[in-house]
Give the backbone structure.
Amino acid sequence: MFHGNSYFLPLDIATCDPLDQQVEITMYLGGGRDGYDFALWCKIAVPGFVFEGVAFQFGLDWAGPAPQTIW
């Protein structure tokens, strides 16, 4: 997902935006629930938006449940 931008999971960035406001983004793969194999956990703190939790879940088997967006 981030390979085209040279980012790889786990991802942990702490920087500032052009207005010198703090930006923090952390993402890693974790275990899924309810029939999903994996989940993408995120902590995103940027000016005007804060989120911490599972962003989406997905499985390894195409015959399993479709990816589930949580946020």
